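Illustration 12: Alpha,alpha-trehalose-phosphate synthase (UDP-forming).
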Amino acid sequence: MAHTDVLDLPLVLLSNRGPVSFGRDSAGRTVNRGAGGLVSALSGLAEHLDDAVWVCGAATEEDAVVAREAAGKALHVQTLPVPHLVDSAFGDASADGGSNKPADGPSIKIRIVETDPFAYADFYSVWSNPILWFIQHGLYGRAYSPDFTQAEHEAFENGYAAVNRAYADAVADEVRARGGKALVLLQDYHFYLVAEHVRQQCPDVVLTHFVHIPWPGPDEWRVLPADIRERLLTGLLGSDVVGFHTRRYARNFVLCASELLGLPIDLDAMTINVGDRVVRARYYPISVDPAALDATLASEDVAAHVSMLRYIFLGDDRQLMLRVDRTDPSKNVVRGFQAFRTLLEQHPELVGKVSFLALLQPSRTDVPEYADYIALIGGVVAEINARFTKDGRQPIDLRMVEDFALAIAAYSICDVLVVNAIADGMNLVAKEVAVVNGRGGVLALSETAGAHEELGEHAVTLHPFDLQQMADAFYSALTMPLEERHRRLAAAAEQVRTHDVARWLSDQLADLRRIAGFA
Ligand code: GDG
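Figure caption equivalent — predicted structure in token form:
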């Protein structure tokens, strides 16, 4: 078949967590679709194209069983459709003919890669989290950095590098099975070495690597041993495009190529010369799927949560502050509560009037830094609640839950959403609140979250380390005239609705179309 568009090419996707994961109940094997805009957007694309495969890791024990049964082959899985995304992002540019999909509904082809558990532990719990995640979120500095002993070096070779090779081999295998030319979309910080391996095996691929977390400047990367940071950068430069959420991250990447690898760059054009190839750094702010959020908001489950939350937190001029995050040190939960404590100390009239609901999802608890962080959060919450409880009402309601419907319900009725991350690639929670809030909710948004570039002018800006500034910003959000609150929220919602996740993907495809010579 002639390739007249980049979407005529076969598609190979790679991410650590796949679009579906398998479980078991009394009736047998279950299939669960992953949550979130990224999975919906990329699943929509993969389901829409006939010759697409998604390479991913085993997230559950049952995934590993499925991977063993499949013995290195890809398999089709029935999924739920996401038609509005398909229509808006991909138009009718799909390939046709030659489909081997089951006839009775949408399906996605996945290939689960199972790796040695020790190698995976070094890959995931030593190198990806915390080392790379911490460096890229500014959680390590020169004074507080990991020691790179022989153990860390070995964990890099036997873990990060070995697992990257295994995934790259699976991707290359799928590309070769499709004639050696494919559109390859790699996701995130787990796979910085994959692009180079794939290009070595399949030089004709069109390849984008999207980095979902911040990319700091060259000096921050100097915390890493020189040979390792050079290998990570060189690995990524196997891509045609390295994508980021913001211009700042993309620019930092180009500067790293110049300063840490000595490669020729053009900072205005955001290009890097690698031999006879040109690698482009680009930015595509990820976003949410507003139609899916609207549908969730309209569900009975959410309505029941809304009634309960209103009953507990609102009425009688009371106000609700909210945060929704994984328990990740980058989210800066402890300082957020410390600033809230300052607010209550300096404005005692708010005690008993303002509640702070924190919906925190326990995350990466097998990594010691993350487990310790949960204990720190518990300590500061207990101290504030002991000091400021009034009329039986505790100021902070901390819930360690995984409950997306509850999160949406809380988004819809909060007065202030707090995002005070030390660094955050984008932060989708802020965009979700902008879409579903119906109460003139004010976004209190860290200046270092990627979302601040698009939504900052409609938000109250937070400085993640300045506790007094944060307390003042909370106060101004809580006391802002209602009319101004609604005006700002409407502007933020408009920005998100016109820059949704379908656009995130279609902008990337439009660039690839040009780069690959289809436009
Ligand atoms: C990384 C980057 C970047 C909330 N409660 C539950 C739940 N959520 C959803 C939220 C939101 C998502 O989880 C969290 O996304 P964020 O973007 O806020 O943060 P990260 O998880 O750190 O994501 C980030 C993102 O990748 C995309 O590129 O924006 O900067 O760090 O959608 O609504 N999901 C489930 N249960 C809950 O209880 N399943």
